[in-house]
Amino acid sequence: MSAAMPVPFDVKLMNVTANIVFALCACLLLAAGAWWVLRQPFFPIAAIKVDGEVTHNNAVTLRANVTPQLAGNFFTVDLARARKAFESVPWVRKAVVRREFPNRLRATLTEHVPVAHWGDEAESKLVNGFGEVFEANVAEVDDNLPRLEGPDDQASQVLGMYRLLAPLFRPYDISVVELGLSTRGSWHVLLDSGAVVELGRGQSEQVVERTEAFLRTVGAVAQQYGRTVASVESADLRHNQGYALRLRGVTTVVADPKKK
Description:
The protein is α/β, with parallel strands linked by helices. The chain has helices spanning about 10-40, 60-65, 80-85, 155-170, 205-225; strands spanning about 45-50, 90-100, 105-110, 115-120, 125-130, 135, 145-150, 175-180, 185-190, 195-200, 230-240, 240-245. About 30% of the residues lie in helices and about 25% in strands.
């Protein structure tokens, strides 16, 4: 009995290659078939569940705004696009959208929490606790929130400065109503008494130091003229080793005797 002749190497290689090609073709056909099935209207999105922080929005309104922007079925819907659609709704800061088998989407929302008005009173901009500027209906927020002003890309810096300065005035029964940062980097505040205080430029530590020095001494200065801190009309802290002060009802201008 003669032994079987070994299969040549090139034949083996051709057989292996053919098997791999057939397997790849089968996988591609299966994938294409599965993709075709998934794209058919057999798996529609039956519901969108909204939860999380929805103080300023209701689920019905959210679904009405977002649903027209969604395309595809349960398997093919673009979750990133759905997330952006939810985050485009006023007050929504962040949305996490995921599929819930068999036919539902769940959107978990986080809303902006306003801590201050932003910019001009004619605008509808607010600032949240992260120093992010957003637009919303300002009629829905507390009128007692402070107003911050400055370049939009520096809102976080302005909020940080407000958090440093506001506590300095409270022991003197004074509240900061507005804080502004000019395009040249100079700070100013409007107090609840109506006084405008120019704080000048510099690092936050320098601005805080000037403000503390002003608050420690302004009461005594006002008292010299029979006035109180509430009589301060304006102050300018941009002077070296001192500040300029304007008090209501007090003038340092000497009358011209020729005009009497």
